[in-house]
Specification:
alpha/beta, 377 residues, binds iron/sulfur cluster, 10-stranded mixed sheet, binds pyridoxal-5'-phosphate
């Protein structure tokens, strides 16, 4: 299935490389539009000109504005008051205009469904605040520590488990990594540092270089992993300097990107990621299972196929963390298990991600497995 056309009723919008537009024309009502991804602006400019309100986003994708009743005095939905809209034009350009069900739009557009309260959906669903071992450091799993590099992201995903994360309380203030470095120096069992956030690639190359240099000076560290959605949402963030810095590091560098739908993987995204892989940096992908985005086998299979066609390995498929405001994204575990089974039937083993969930207090991500299937030796 390489040439699907619509994303209604289980079909996929973008399945062939040719289909994803590199130049995409929107009504010229917003600065920076129409957008030509083949001539990218500097990634920091892309951040600055990103869309920052739900009504502006609706306008950009040619949807009617929300009614005055649901909008507050500031013209915002309740859900975007504590977690603002943030969508770079590079990502918006991959959304099908006038389609309220577009799988990319669904990930970034605040809706009134965010106000639904449901038991079990909490502000800190994975217990990260309890796992902070030092300001800005999470050390939950053996051998690996995760640095909350910054609180900024290149996009605001409405299902994000950190949507209410109180970064002010974590000590992860921008540019203040000294306590994290000191913690790592004193923990010889840690071999791998994961730069996460927020998104570590919203930090400048210069700052990142300082941080990486400090990590390289810690003798027991062997690997450096970056968890970033920037290569997907603002691909020009993969600068030549960044590729060079990571590939020449004393530490083995790995990159884990985050794409949920094949339509996110535009030509410019794939071209920039190829530069990382060509330089010797393995690139993996993690996705979140999301209702109305990738909860159909065909869509997920196409995502995985497109990833491995471009040498990116599907790593994890996350069951949604039950964060307040994201009830409308949840897919039942039974559905997820069936989808994984179907993927296994049509894809090579290395193209099937591990279906996992994060549980507070566990020593690793928990695999979600079908206990009803018996193995006979
Ligand atoms: C997910 C996560 C990791 C990395 O886990 P892997 O299974 O190695 O990918 C490390 N630390 C924390 C706190 C995490 O949430
Ligand atoms: S990029 Fe990652 S951390 Fe940032 S909002 Fe999206 S899912 Fe959350």
């Amino acid at each position: 299935m390489r040439n699907g056309s619509t994303n209604q009723s289980g079909k996929i919008l973008a399945t062939s490389d040719e289909f994803v537009p590199t130049a995409f024309h929107l009504p010229g009502e917003l600065p920076g539009l129409p957008l030509d991804e083949s001539e990218p602006v500097h990634w920091q400019v892309a951040m600055k000109r990103a869309i920052r309100s739900s009504q502006q986003l609706r306008k950009a994708v040619r949807l009617p504005p929300d009614s005055a009743e649901v909008l507050g005095a500031e013209g915002k939905l309740a859900g975007e008051r504590n977690f603002p809209t943030f969508a770079p034009l590079e990502f918006v350009a991959r959304i099908e205009p006038s389609n309220p069900d577009d799988p990319l739009l669904r990930q970034v557009l605040p809706v009134t469904a965010e106000e639904v309260e449901q038991a079990g959906f909490a502000a800190d669903p994975v217990g990260d605040l309890n796992a902070l071992v030092s300001p800005g450091v999470l050390h939950k799993y053996e051998g690996r520590a995760l640095i909350l590099t910054t609180s900024a992201c290149g996009i605001h995903c409405r299902y994000c488990f950190r949507r209410e994360f109180p970064y002010q309380q974590t000590g992860s203030r921008k540019d203040e990594w000294l306590p994290s470095i000191e913690y790592l120096q004193n923990q010889p069992e840690i071999e791998e540092v994961i730069l996460s956030g927020g998104d570590p690639l919203t930090t400048t190359d210069e700052k990142l270089d300082q941080l990486i240099s400090a990590l390289e000076d810690i003798p027991h560290l062997k690997r450096l992993r970056l968890h970033s959605r920037m290569p997907i949402v603002i691909p020009q963030r993969i600068t030549e300097e960044l590729v060079e810095r990571l590939s020449s590091s004393r530490l083995s560098a790995w990159m884990v990107v985050h794409a949920n739908h094949p339509q996110e993987l535009s030509e410019s995204v794939l071209a920039r990621i190829a530069k990382l892989i060509d330089s010797g940096i393995p690139v993996l992908n993690q996705a979140v299972l999301l209702r109305g985005v990738n909860d159909q086998t065909e869509v997920l299979a196409e995502l995985c196929r497109r990833l491995v066609n471009h040498r990116i390995q599907p790593y994890y498929l996350h069951q949604l963390d039950r964060v307040r405001g994201a009830t409308h994204f949840e897919v039942p575990v039974e559905t997820g298990l069936k989808m994984i089974d179907s993927l296994r039937a049509v894809l090579p083993g290395y193209a099937v991600p591990q279906y996992v969930h994060e549980e507070a207090g566990k020593k690793s991500k928990s695999p979600i497995l079908d206990n009803t299937r018996k193995v006979n030796f």
